[in-house]
Amino acid sequence: MKEELASCSSCVNENCFIKKHIHLEQMKSYIERKRSFTCKKAQQFIIEGSPIQGLYFIHKGKVKTVKTGINGREQIVRLTKDGDTVGFRGFGTSKRYLIGSYALEDTTLCNFSNEDMLEILHNVPEFTFDLMLFYAEELNKSENNIRKIAQMNVRERVIDTLLYIHRKFGQINGVIELDLSRKEIADFAGTNDEQVIRVISSLKKELLIKTVGKKIGLVNPDKLRSEIKEHK
């Protein structure tokens, strides 16, 4: 990992927790103490089970967060981009990270240490309140995902994953702006590579999606949404 200076004052990520609160006088000293660095594509910066080193905020880039299953296979539990928070699972209640995180492309991250984050939570009530709402929303999303995985068939889970990625990262020139392998799509959808390949092939034949290399474009998102609307 390469040290990099990422300025909060010039940051354009209005959804970032730090950016939202830099106008507060109490935040100035903490911002001065943060560190920032760049991870290369595929580089892991959080190792599951390692001691917690605070929270990470994505300045620029894309990240996948994973959790190891009982058979040793990594399940993707979250995909994140500019302004998102990483490493919050277990923060404050555990001494070790409950997840692992990898850069999906060259990614610049800002890191606030455990000590600084705990001080912020004690001293900046506006930040603490917003973080509490964030945790509540993430818990709701996790519960919904567990329900969907239990109720959806494989095709529906793959469609739901493609729609989520499309919604999260958008499309440019007709393809989703995220370079995921078929295995990574399978890890996120809770299935295996072969089934994902089969579903993608079927969706292409039905002219609902297209592929350009590894990238996928949604040709008819409304039709795809209609297939899984009963689960929403």
Describe the structure.
It is a single chain. By secondary structure, the chain is α+β, with helices and mostly antiparallel strands. It contains eight helices and 13 strands. Strands 1-2-9-4-7 form a five-stranded antiparallel beta sheet. Strands 3-8-5-6 form a four-stranded antiparallel beta sheet. The radius of gyration is 19 Å and the shape is globular. The model has no long low-confidence stretch (mean pLDDT 91).
Quick recap:
Pfam families: cNMP_binding, HTH_Crp_2. The chain is 40% helix and 23% strand.
- Spans where pLDDT lies below 50 across 5 or more residues: none
* Computed CA radius of gyration, to the nearest angstrom: 19 Å
Overall geometry comes to: globular
Number of strands: 13
Domain HTH crp-type: 152-222
Keywords: DNA-binding, Transcription, Transcription regulation
Protein name: Crp/Fnr family transcriptional regulator
Pfam families: cNMP_binding, HTH_Crp_2
